[in-house]
Specification:
The chain is an alpha/beta fold. The chain is built from 3 helices and 4 strands. The chain has a 4-stranded mixed β-sheet with strand order 1-2-3-4, with helices on one face. Helix 1 links the parallel strand 2 and strand 3. The model has no long low-confidence stretch (mean pLDDT about 90).
Amino acid sequence: MSLKIKQYKDTFIIRGCINANTTKQLRRHLEFLILYTKKLTLDIGAVTQIDANGMKVLRELYAFALQEKKSLCFVGYGCKALHEDFETL
């Protein structure tokens, strides 16, 4: 399944699977958004799968946001698991 990212007000809604096939697209798009916004909110409620590659990229993007002193927030069903995983950063 492909990955779709749509903006609704100040939130970017991600739909589809975050896996080895989609992480390159996701990384490029979110790095751009992190650089050119002060705060980035991602709704992952419509994400149907996140594999190990996807988790790795999300961790790296979170670390990148911290490095750039930007806010990156995840909302939606499944975000608790992401926050628990990111606590190690």
